[in-house]
Amino acid sequence: MKSDIEIARLAKLEDMNIIADKVGIRTEELIPCGGFKAKVHPKIFDRINKNKDGKLILVTTINPTPEGEGKTTMTIGLGQALAKLGKKTMLCIREPSLGPTMGMKGGAAGGGYSQVLPMEDINLHFTGDMHAITSAHNLLASLLDNHIHHGDEFHIDPRYIVWPRVMDISDRSLRNVVVGLGGPNDGVPHQEEFAITPASEIMAILCLIKDLNDLKERLGRIIVAYTYDNKPITAKDLKAVGAMTVLLKDAMKPNLVQTIEGVPAFVHGGPFANIAHGTNSLFATKMALKLADYVVTEAGFGSELGAEKFFNIVCRTGGLKPDAVVMLVSIKALKRHGKGDVKEGLPNLEKHLGNISIYGIPVVVAINHFIDDTDKEIKIVEEFCKTKNVPIAVADIWCHGGEGGIELAGKLVNLIHNNPSNFKFLYDVNLPVKEKIEIIAKKMYGASRVVYTVAAERDVKLCEELGLDKLPICVAKTQYSLSDDSKCFGKPEGFKITVREIKFSAGAGFLVPMTGKITTMPGLPAKPTSENINIDDEGNITGLF
Fold first, then answer.
1. Catalytic positions
2. Which end of the chain is more exposed for a tag (fewer CB within 10 A), N or C?
3. Domain ranges of the chain
4. C-alpha angle with apex 36: 32 to 40, nearest 5 degrees?
């Protein structure tokens, strides 16, 4: 059986003008990025803004295994299946991060015959968006330290510098460092943190903006530090906004590529869902909704993380109304939650289905078929969904591409047309901060209570003093469990969620409670995928999958 990269390399790609024409993007609205990649100019909104929005479909999943359940692959395969049914379809997915690509997953452009292409480019440097975000973020960090070095007009307390540095590589050794050592000419010594680029607030901002002016306004609101009298210092105070915007001017434009079957796809933005809000750019999604009749997007990890944040942050910010949810399930993940028994793992699926029902959105379950799944195991899941009156389809989109998702696509279209969405938010943003966190913890995770460290209590009080308490919540939590303990599988009950601290993303427009042992800088596994990645004398890359 061919590997993902071998399948991708043998695929015949269509000219980008042909791909663009399928959804009505004109040649003059394309900005070629070499080969089979292009950006789409924001001016397209002047022409398409009055178009009726298409149907918005979100793909989510249960609590996953470390290898992932193929959510991006399912999103791509479903898009291809809808296209085979004659539906004008677009995909909106996130850009892969080099952290997982070089660490555990080896890539995030789909798999088998459900991939976005060119696979190697998308999984590596792509169009440079990640580098632009990293550069803009670190420019602000540099300007902050430079301000302190040259006299510190604002009287910044170096103990309360809250703006980290970032890089798009997993490196746990940089989580806590000291910078400015070496003497007076080398800066002012202070403790510093590094985060991975997808956790950058600038990544979140880029994925939530509506236009260039909105980008500038949000960048200006970023809080980087506090003075000795507790006054917040922003990027606007440091006169950083103009230069940061220049670095991001191209990164804000959606990237257009194609699936292996020639379906147009936006791959734009890449926040993680366990430490950020976990969906592609709102800019790309709103553009796609004006261009296509069906738009399929995905939210990172399970319904209690990516989907919850998509509904309560992204949809709230962009005025979106999802029409349906596809709940991806793998037999492997159910066994993990059931200690080897599929039936014992079903309560985890039941909880995630319950989560979606709270939002009033119709849902269909998709079993991502793997070669070692048995008919008996699949039958158990089908019978369970039947008792819940939830439609279910087995999709073999890795092996068969869009054809393998025809049953799922058909049931999804039927669901959308016969079950209108009654979408509603989980909470009112005007509620107190603790109450909003408690609603998420109790209703989405099933927690019995939320406890706060002394530092977190201080953060709650400070955000109220700064007038940030009316912002939505973006909980940073392990993806492997409904709880904040990554080894607590299934559907736990009676557990507590511990909030260590709350980070303020004033520019992005949300608060980030840090729970359990979650960190914004992941580490590499004992045997990282990078050990198997190589390139031969003819330029052929191996080891990506």
1. 71, 73, 94, 105, 273, 301, 370, 398
2. N
3. 4-127+251-369+376-418, 130-248, 433-515
4. 40
